[in-house]
Fold this protein.
Amino acid sequence: MSNSELAELAKEITDNVQRCWKCRMCVEMCPTYEGWFTQSTAGRLMAINLYIKHGLGSEEDLSNMLYSCTTCRRCQERCRILSTDCSPADTILKARQYLVRKAELKGERNHEQIP
Amino acid sequence: MGGSIISDLKKLVGKENASDNIYERISYGQDAAQPDLEPEKIPVAVVKPQSTRGVSEALKYANKNKIPIYIHGAGTAFKGSPKPKRPGSILLSTQGLTSIEEHEEDMYYELGAGVNLYKLEKLLLSRGYLLPMTIGSKFSSTIGGAVSINTVGHMVDICLGKIIDYVMGVEVVLPNGDIIETGTRSIRRPAGLDYTRFFVGAEGLFGVITKVRFRVIADRKKAYVVGFFPELTDVAHAFQRYYREKLPPPLYGEVLDKVAAEAPFRLRGLGEPKGHMALAITISYAQEEADREAQEMVRVFKSENAIDAHVVTSKREQTDYWDARDNILNILQASEGDEKLVMAGALESSVPLSHLDDVLVYLQTGHTYRALKEAKLFIYGHIGTCDLHGMWVAPVSMPQAERMQIAKEAVQLEGDVNLMWGCASGEVGQTASRMPFFKKRYGMAAHTMLMNVKKAIDPNNILNPGNLEGEGYE
């Protein structure tokens, strides 16, 4: 993957996140949610945006959050039926891909992060 | 300073209940419709006490050190009230307060502020009770947030009343950390000084509600009505006529414009809407009575040009129509060419009954705001309680500056509507982003009075500071 392809992937991800309305209907129902916002889908989406768009937070924190998602896709269905259909589960998977590709480009591929 | 605050807070509320993670701090620092958060206003810590005592310790600490503290239920507020306005703040979430005590013999439940509304609704229904509120964000929002705003959401206020009518008392932590209780355990409210009212609907200005003594009411029988109209103003005329005829207020009276109805209709396989959609639910203790009121509603709809109006008896049809209305964000699933849409501006106003039609016309064609005229407008709302919404949307690729202009004009238009027709928000609160309007509508003498009350209760102005001042929204 080239730098421009990585930038394209980043745009696709952040455009999806931008469609998230922060209605938070995916928070309480997330199986990994134990009271902290970043343990839920909406929290993961916000973190993705903060990292990719604004360079905030650490890659390690973001990676841990992304890989704690069970990819059960309940949030994706709820968002489609009740909200803006911003494809949250797909976006989380794409963000995982983004981190891996980014590391590859930097020559720092971390095999532990590959599912 | 930030480092010492987080370690102090961890000691006070437990290390698992405090965080200085940047992602948590920013996520909790935002709310549903106010996503912008200036970097210097990102809170230094988030705390999530699991008990009233923990809330009290956090407030005592903030008060002693004069640290601003912002209170956050589920973060679904629309007008920026939980968003930090001042740098160096603590953000306190009440979501850890989830206790539920049943006192059915005295017709109430004592609820922790963090109890989720959807779970509460299901629990009450299973016991034969009706939760007298329908908040659009019920899947995530909390009873503490709803009581702080005193909103029943989509329901018609004059049917079953507002939340204050059900709150027999509250437990509150004052800005200095003192814990007080208000109200009664009787179904009869205190006569005279009833200072529960200082906190219900106060938007967290005077204290943090930690428990709510909530009166329960028996579930009612319901009947469902749908109507489709050629013009939006026909829907307004139908509800004006309904009340003019002195018919019993319905539990719900909703409107969804034809364009807004298209996406949710498609999603549910309902085809094209026949016109602008109106929905109503009538209620009574007896099914026959609810059915009779529904027939009256159908008659009124037809007398105001409805293309089609009928009582909806099929459960499937009821669910489809009501889901189409309740899941209003589905309208953002419509696309503009190849592009998906995002919300750029929004309006909510509860207007006088006799001007429902005038406001609908004004929203569509009566104003001169350029960016709003160029954006796509969806109109919907709780027309049975005279509460109208407008949502202006834009393609996701629209530059941020243009979207901000739409947002700004929507706020101005909302203020214009409220000033022209002498009204205010009936659903999502009055402080924070709405303070500039508040000052115009009620005048500086009223604002100064409220500031003085706030100062008397919170002399260091640590609790949600900037919300009553309207900081950042002038």
About this structure: Helices of chain A lie at 3-19, 41-54, 59-67, 74-82, 88-105. Residues 60 and 113 of chain A are 10 Å apart (CA to CA). The domain at 3-113 of chain A is CATH 1.10.1060 (Fumarate Reductase Iron-sulfur Protein; Chain B, domain 2).
